[in-house]
Structure prediction request, 326 residues.
Amino acid sequence: MYPFSYTRASDLRTALRAGADGGRYVAGGTTLVDLMRETVERPGTLVDISGLPLREVTATKGGGLRIGALMRMAEIAAHPTVRALYPVISQALELSASAQLRNMATIGGNVMQRPRCTYFRDVTAACNRREPGTGCGAREGFNRTHAILGTSEQCVATHPSDVAVAFAALEATVHLLGPAGERTVAFADFLLRPGSTPQREQDLRPGELITAVEIPAQPRPLRSGYLKVRDRQSYEFALTSAAVALHVRAGVIRSAKVAAGGVGTVPWKLSAVEQRLIGARPSEALWAQAAEVAAEGAHPLAHNGFKVELLKRTVERQLRVVGGTR
Prediction:
């Protein structure tokens, strides 16, 4: 680990001043400190924001939800309002990491996770995210766990967050605060595909920090859930996952929100699946037909072609679990 300075922010103004001067924000530290030990990250200054007043869950008008960025993953998963309104969020969090990490990691930090690509974490390997212009070791290397959607010549790493998949499905908004003031960004625009600039992973301006993630009000009744498929039952990242939320009234699907994880360079909104569902009546045939388009646009690599069929099956299974048949 390289030398660094440390400061603890007592209020938002102090935090923003330190961030504007080049400091890196840290709260739970479950990702950043790990990367610092591996010398992947080498910040000169850490700004501890764990004491800032960003730790509450608030129900908004119409049944939406605002989650403070410093809420711990375990706190959100167990929160009665979250469990009642959006079980897909609770389930995604409960299937993430270990109990110890969930007790430490914050929701803002979870969304800001760096890739879990082994080439990114190996400082001797070529990685355009870590060192732009050096190449992507994963493209020609072992890429079984890598992305099939949203990739570029520069990077094929997946985004590792489970709850980010639920946020993408529910069309959340990210609230930001920086030296220039407050702003909001649609979750779909906050996490960036690699394109030609894989080192830029979020739509963040210098010195900005996440203050909250807001879920817009959804039509009721709403049934939702999260399914994660992985190599082992616990402490493992998704090979594929599916977040589904359905509003069914009078036997017809009026609203459908579906996103996938483990297959995209960002949490992948499955708009084509949603379009197949809206206006249709729940049935076994419908789930299969909708899931068939889940992998549209996929570009498998040498070792992860199995993800195309696995994604379809994962989406179909979760549609059946959430939607049932009538």
About this structure: Residues 64 and 217 are 4 Å apart (CA to CA). The mean pLDDT is 96. The radius of gyration is 20 Å. The first strand starts at residue 5 and ends at 8.
